[in-house]
Design a protein that fits this description.
Elements: E1 2-6, H1 10-19, E2 35-39, E3 50-60, H2 62-68, E4 84-85, E5 90-97, E6 109-112, H3 118-121, H4 128-132, E7 165-169, E8 173-175, H5 182-185, H6 188-200, E9 208-212, H7 216-227, E10 233-238, H8 241-249, E11 254-257, H9 262-270, E12 274-276, E13 284-286, E14 289-294, H10 299-307, E15 309-317, H11 330-334, E16 338-341, E17 347-350, E18 353-356, H12 357-366, E19 376-381, H13 385-393, E20 402-406
Parallel strand pairs: 9-10, 9-14, 10-11, 14-15, 15-16, 19-20
Antiparallel strand pairs: 1-2, 1-4, 3-5, 3-7, 3-20, 5-6, 6-8, 12-13, 17-18
Helix pairs in contact: 6-7, 6-12
């Protein structure tokens, strides 16, 4: 089968890291980069508790672009096994099921919870995090029957959604009801990232929520809050007019455009805060939002998230992980802020029942509380992966929100 893999090599990594500063296309060069389009064997079932899934759509995630552009922190490298097929956002059908698989049949339309935790790894003594249902915090992501990998799409044994087939443990498979189409299905995973952050850090009634970033995750944070019917005020910081329209369509009360220095005064006004001038440097904000969801992962956005949070408020970091210099942590100390990270998804409580986050996402879709299909703006055949990456890199030029590959 055709597969798009990340194959780490010191010479290719070093070359891409240097040249990529001046010519980003080197990151997906067919011969000089760590990215490889190649024919590989279809992954086999690790044991009889696994299933093989035929991919219908494989989503292109911001974290995939971060990987390809070599922006990931080396901290994550022990939790991957090379070469691996990229892609953790997937909707497809079951192609093969092991003899021990129950309640799943060939042809079932499914999505996958890609986290490779204790159960999927065959660990007999489940770690404390998995016992709590915090699968994304599993202590054994380098252990067990399969190679290291935080997720499907970072493990050489499982494959990924940037190919025609992948394998997953039966515990990771979630069937899609008829009410949820494939376009929503491929967005269950990114929606669940936002949903997890909201479920673990729910705004209170009457809170002002500030969402920084209006890409897929930022818009999904807005959609999650509204789908959960939390009565709060949502303000979103956007770069482009099409993002503003989308944010409003999913329930944002107000949007602020990131333009020059003007956005600082605009945001302060909307958030009922004061702009104070230090002796030099960036403006200081007094007051701000009750909760800020940071969905970009850059120096500017993180600094903004810290300074636009009121005293005693909370900052939730969903943006991409990385080594970022120049973060001013003064307001964390000065305003006694709570700063919380949010990685992937695990379990949450919905209508009094503890469920996997992806199951809650699907239920919200089934009930008609959220429809994310309009977020898919571009589809590419797998062979046109370089065009897909280029489109993701130039989002502002083409009203790009979500790009998916069709193997």
């Amino acid at each position: 089968m055709n597969s798009i893999q990340f194959d780490y090599s010191v010479p290719r990594y070093a070359l891409s890291k240097v040249v990529g500063r001046f010519s980003p296309s080197i990151y997906w060069h067919p011969k000089l980069s760590c990215l490889r389009f190649r024919k590989v064997s279809t992954p086999s079932l690790p044991d009889e508790n696994w299933v093989k899934v035929k991919v219908k759509y494989g989503g292109v995630c911001g974290s995939d672009i971060n990987l390809i552009c070599l922006n990931d922190s080396p901290t994550t490298s022990p939790f991957a096994s090379f070469p691996f097929t990229i892609g953790h956002e997937v909707v497809g059908t079951i192609d093969e099921a092991g003899s021990m698989v129950e309640n799943l049949n060939q042809g079932d339309r499914v999505v996958i919870d890609p986290v490779l935790s204790c159960i999927s790894r065959g660990i007999e003594k489940i770690c404390p995090a998995c016992e709590r249902g915090d699968y994304s915090l599993c202590n054994h992501m380098t252990d067990g029957k399969i190679s290291p990998g935080l997720l499907i799409g970072a493990c050489r044994d499982t494959g990924g959604s940037w190919s025609s087939h992948l394998v997953a443990h039966q515990s990771q498979i979630i069937r899609l009801p008829d009410e949820v189409d494939d376009s929503n299905g491929v967005l269950v995973e990114p929606f669940s990232c936002a949903l997890h952050a909201v479920l673990r850090n729910p705004p209170k009634e009457g809170d002002t929520v500030f969402v920084i970033g209006a890409g897929v995750i930022g818009i999904c944070v807005v959609a999650a809050i509204r789908a959960l019917e939390i009565p709060c005020r949502i303000v979103v910081l956007v770069k482009h007019s099409f993002q503003a329209d989308l944010a409003k369509s999913y329930g944002a009360d107000e949007v602020i455009f990131l333009k020059g220095k003007q956005y600082i005064d605009d945001a302060a006004k909307v958030l009922n805060a004061k702009v104070l001038k230090p002796i030099y440097g960036e403006s200081v904000i007094q007051g701000g939002a009750d909760i800020v969801f940071e969905c970009v992962g850059r120096k500017k956005s993180i600094n903004d998230s810290l300074r636009f949070t009121r005293s005693g408020g909370k900052v939730v970091l969903l943006g991409l992980a990385g080594i970022i210099d120049g973060i001013d942590w003064t307001t964390v100390w000065l305003n006694e802020l709570e700063v919380k990270g949010s990685f992937a998804y695990s379990t949450g409580v919905y209508q009094g029942k503890k469920m996997r986050t992806l199951e809650i996402a699907i239920e919200l879709m089934r009930q008609g509380k959220v429809d994310l299909s309009q977020m898919i703006t571009h589809r590419f055949p797998l062979e046109q992966y370089r065009e897909a990456i280029t489109m993701m890199m130039k989002k502002g030029n083409g009203s790009t929100i979500k790009v998916v590959l069709e193997p």
